[in-house]
Amino acid sequence: MGIPAVRSGRPSLDGRPDTPFLLDRFGRVARDLRVSITEKCSLRCTYCMPEEGLPAIPQHELLTVEEIVRLVRLAVRELGVQEVRFTGGEPLMRRDLERIIAGCHEQVPGTPLAMTTNGVGLEHRARGLAAAGLHRVNVSLDTVDRAGYAELTRRDRLDSALAGIRAARDAGLAPVKINAVLMRETLSGAADLLQWCLDEECTLRFIEEMPLDADHEWARANMVTAAELLDVLGERFELTAAGRDDPSAPAETWLVDGGPATVGIIASVTRKFCDTCDRTRLTADGMLRSCLFSDQEYDLRQALRSGADDAELATLWRGAMWNKWAGHGIDAEGFVPPERTMGAIGG
Ligand code: SAM
Ligand code: SF4
Question: Which UniProt keywords apply (predicted)?
C-alpha cells in the first residue's frame, strides 16, 4: 500500500520549447515545490493514514539532508521555483528538520521556506526552526473539541497542537495558517474552530476531503462540500465573498462579519482548480510527481545517486513536468485514486 504501480524511466520531451522553467503541455508553469521529508506521523487522521501508520520507508531510501538541499537549490536556481514547502507525513518527525531548513536557507536565501505540520511538538521547536530560516507554517487543525480531535486523529494531542500554533505565532512564523479538512464528524464544530482562529489571529482555510485516504473510505456522495460548510458557518457569521487572494491559490475567500478577517475554502473536489495548478512535488524517497493524483513518478533519487550532474537532474525534472496531465478528474465517472495516499505524497 502507498507505493504507485507505475514508474516510468525517462520522460519524453517531445514538442517541449527550450525554456528552463517547469512548463507543461497545457501552458502551466510550476513555481511551488512541495517536499515530503518523511512518511512517519505523530497522528493517524482518518482521512489520511491507516490506524497502524504507513509502511516505513527504509532509511537508505529516504533522501538525506544533503540530497534535499541539493534538489531544492537546483529547483530554485535552475528551474524557476519560487517557494518551497516541507511536508510529509509529519515533518517534525525528522530530527534533522532544522538542518534541512538551515541548509536550504543558506543555499536559496531569498526563497520563502514554509512547512505544513500538525503542530504536535512544534511548541519546542518553533523558535529553532524560525532561527534556521523557516518563514511560515500551515498547521492542520480540524476541530478545537478535544474528544472530536482525538477521534479524528486517533490521538489525544489537541493541547500540544494548540500550544504549537501559539508557539509558531510567538516565534514570528506568522500569520499562522490553519488547514481543516471538511469531515462530517467535525462539521458541527466548524464555527467554533473559526471563532478560535479569529481569537488567536490565525487564518483558517477549510479543504474538501479528497480521495487520498489510506483506508479508501472516501465516497463522493458522503463528503462534506464547500456549500454545506457555508451554510453551517452562515448560521453564526456573516460571510461576504471576497474572491481569491492569489490567482494560483485554490482557496476562495470570504470576509467574516465585514472583515478584515477572512475564511478560505479550498473546494478541491467540487470546484476543480487544476487549470491554475503551479505545483511540483518530491516524495520523501526521492520520486518526482507532477500531480497529487498521478500514478506516474520519476526516480530522481536513483539519478542523483548514480552520479547525475545538475544539468541531467534538471532535464529529468523538466520532462516530468512536461508530461503532467490536465487534471485529476475526481468528479469524473471511473475515477481511480492513486496508489500513493496523501500521507505518502505530502499535501
Ligand atoms: N502532517 C502534516 C499535516 O497534517 O499538516 C503534513 C502532511 S498532511 C498529508 C498535509 C495536508 O494534507 C494536511 O493539511 C492534511 O489535512 C491534508 N490532507 C490529508 N489527507 C487529506 C485528504 N484525504 N483530503 C484533503 N486533505 C488531506
Ligand atoms: Fe499525519 Fe498530517 Fe496525515 Fe494527519 S494529515 S495523519 S497529521 S500526515
Answer: 4Fe-4S, GTP-binding, Iron, Iron-sulfur, Lyase, Metal-binding, Molybdenum cofactor biosynthesis, Nucleotide-binding, S-adenosyl-L-methionine
